[in-house]
Amino acid sequence: MSAYDVIVIGSGPGGYVCAIRCAQLGMKTAIVEGRDTLGGTCLNVGCIPSKALLHASHMLHEAEHNFAAMGLKGKSPSVDWDQMLTYKSETIGQNTKGVEFLMKKNKIDWLKGWGSIPEAGKVKVGDEVHEAKNIIIASGSEVATLPGVEIDEKVVVSSTGALELGKIPKKLVVIGAGVIGLELGSVYKRLGSEVKVIEFLDAVTPGMDAEIQKTFQRTLKKQGLEFQMGAAVQSVEVKNGKAKVNYKLRKDESDHVEEADIVLVATGRRPYTDGLGLEALGVTLSKRGQIETDAHYATNVPGIYAIGDCIDGPMLAHKAEDEGMAVAEFIAGQKPHINYNIIPGVIYTHPEVANVGATEEQLKEAGQDYKVGKFSFMGNGRAKANFAGDGFVKILADKNTDRILGAHIIGPMAGDLIHEICVAMEFGAAAEDLARTCHAHPTYSEAVREAALACNDGPIHS
Ligand code: NAI
Question: Which residue has the CA at smallest separation from atom 12 of ligand 1?
């Protein structure tokens, strides 16, 4: 038995970042992970591998659609799926090995196996029990299954199975027009699959600014994705390696069937806390299975904390990372703070979609007096040169004080562009502050400045 100041359970972005921060603050730290590699869902079967496939398939799209116009002639590349999967696996390997290196560098012990908490102050991994003054649960989330739909990871797959299909499907049906469905749906569309997305609601990506939702869906349709909106999937039948997706239209309750070679179930995720022994410990869970914590990430059992996807809030790697750092700092007696109003969200399609702060619908509902500054990437020189003129930047600011309340971008590098607005919001900036900040030319960032100008005197290039 060994004794630690902190044991972190789970090595995803929440857990491993938390462990590093604990070690930096002088605590003797161990991390528990049952997978063969560190990094959790994000690095092994989520964010990182999907970004590799998004990148590769986007390159193919560029070659097929834009190379000739730029004077780049030659045979269009064809897809070597096995090599693409190798590239994806190598990308995963580089990242997971990187985390392993960081653990060693920070003298964090990796306790290999699945952890449980037999009692406060103790973590059991395999046959060994380790003592810990503080236990931090960062056990993440798992795919939320749909009644009537059995995921076999062969024909009916979750995002995990969709990242390692035996071949590119002729026809892919995606259930759910959320982040996962649209990112992976667009990968396979670009690789040649016929892709149909079946969505319960009338708009894609629930919760996003409605104007962005509309433009995003229109853009994806232009790229060839098909949508069946307002449809509730009831069941999926698999016969002879093919699937039939049965769904009901909400408007008239009519029944329909869609055939598919592969069905991707992307209808959300739920907290994963199996096997930790939380019930016996008396740790309080919400109705949705999230571990309940106070503002310092402490559960109701002294010495046990929780962060990331297994607690309340958006299931985002960067939100988990911030909570990982914050809980370490709380334990060390510091006073960290996370501004939950300024957590950006990004969808890594092409064009990318990014948002931070309030949507226009939220401001309307709150009765807030606001103004809108918008600028299209069509007016941005760099975007035009790069065939990336689709999309716009939209900044929402308080009508009276000019303070930025939210921003929504669909366009090139939106996921990077959003951060200057995050920083501005963190410092309580007005749209005029952004507008008066010199932005290098020619960059996509100029579109952000123009949208800020549009909040007041008006943009220059439109
Ligand atoms: P999601 O919650 O984003 O979207 C699920 C969609 O499925 C919703 O639009 C919902 O209306 C629809 N749906 C539910 N039941 C249905 C039914 N019976 N028939 C038809 N449609 C139905 O969930 P998703 O895409 O699975 O992502 C899970 C989590 O992972 C999210 O919290 C997301 O934030 C996170 N994630 C984030 C990424 C990023 O930040 N780029 C990438 C991948 C995942």
Answer: 176
Confirm or reject: Cβ of 176 under 6 Å from ligand 1. Answer: yes
Q: Is the CB–ligand 1 distance for residue 330 below 6 Å?
A: no
Using the atom order of ligand 1, give the atom closest to the CA of residue 46. Answer: 43
pLDDT band at residue 2, thresholds of 50, 70 and 90? confident
Across 240-264, average pLDDT: 98
Beta bridge partners of 174: 197, 264
**Which single residue is written with the structure tokens 């499907």?**
169
Secondary structure tally for the chain: helices H, strands E: 14, 22
| pLDDT value at 182 more than 90 | yes
At 122-181, the pLDDT tens digits run 999 999 999 999 999 999 999 998 999 999 999 999 999 999 999 999 999 999 999 999
Quick check: CB of 336 below 6 Å from ligand 1?
Answer: no
pTM: 0.97
Tokens of 387: 């065939």
Ligand 1 contacts CB of residue 258 (under 6 A): no
What does the block give as tokens for 6? 């902190």
- Token pair in block for residue 116: 């449980």
Q: What is the mean pLDDT of residues 46-65?
A: 97
Q: How far apart are CA 94 and CA 99, in angstroms?
A: 9
Closest by CA position to 355, among listed 403, 399, 411, 439: 411
In 37-155, the DSSP E strands lie at 109-112, 115-119, 122-125, 128-137, 141-143
Q: Which of 404, 361, 401, 158 is nearest to 263 (CA)?
A: 158
Catalytic residue list: 441
Q: What's the CA gap between 359 and 211, in Å, rounded?
A: 9
Q: Are strands 392-398 and 171-175 parallel, antiparallel or unpaired?
A: unpaired
- To test the pocket of ligand 1, the residue of 180, 216, 233, 272 to mutate (highest count of ligand atoms within 8 Å of its CB) is 180
Q: Give residue 79's pLDDT.
A: 97
Does residue 208's CB lie within 6 angstroms of at least one atom of ligand 1?
no
Confidence at residue 450, expressed as pLDDT on a 0 to 100 scale? 98
